[in-house]
Amino acid sequence: MELVSPLQFSVVQPTLYRGSYPREINLPFLKSLQLKKIISFVPEEITKEVDAVLVNFCEEHYIELIHIQSGKVKQKKEKKKKEDKSKVKRKQKQVPIEYSTVIECVKILINKNNYPCYMHGVSDNDIVISLVVACLRKFSFWSNIAIMNEFLVYNSSINIHERTFIESFNSEIIIENMDKKDIVNWIHSQSTSSSSTSMLPKIKFES
């Protein structure tokens, strides 16, 4: 049987993969990767009511399906009273995720015991995955030019808000109850150094 990879599938780091939302036709391919984790950057948690095929696949192959909320959660429409005709316009987010989304992801991906791992968003050109990967590259000390060039491989353009989000990411991430020997090798040593004075994101271990 021919294996069909998800759309936009690619390797981020050895045994760390990215791509579109996996369809049933993609599951044999994902099985071949011997995944331990699937990280879903979607608005709502994937349950059997939402996608029984994917959930059953993960259960059958002992893959942990991790939900990191991103994007707008659909709300049930309620009947509005006739007298309430006023509408409040809310300003849309300039980028679809917060830094907390990236931090939550890093706390999973920093541990080599969570690999192989596949990350996906809602669609085949989901900008959330591109933003997360761009921020992850800063832990490997990629230059901004290299990060932006990779971003444009998966997206037709990058606006000023997306560029600023990536360039300004310099959070200190606290990692608890993890042995330092389990850190993945793509994290640059300067990212975990207490003496580092760079403006890049940092990782701090606490017992």
UniProtKB/TrEMBL annotation:
Gene3D superfamilies: Protein tyrosine phosphatase superfamily. Pfam families: Y_phosphatase2. One of its GO terms (molecular function) is phosphatase activity. This is Tyrosine-protein phosphatase domain-containing protein. It comes from Tetrapisispora phaffii (strain ATCC 24235 / CBS 4417 / NBRC 1672 / NRRL Y-8282 / UCD 70-5). The lineage of its organism: Eukaryota, Fungi, Dikarya, Ascomycota, Saccharomycotina.
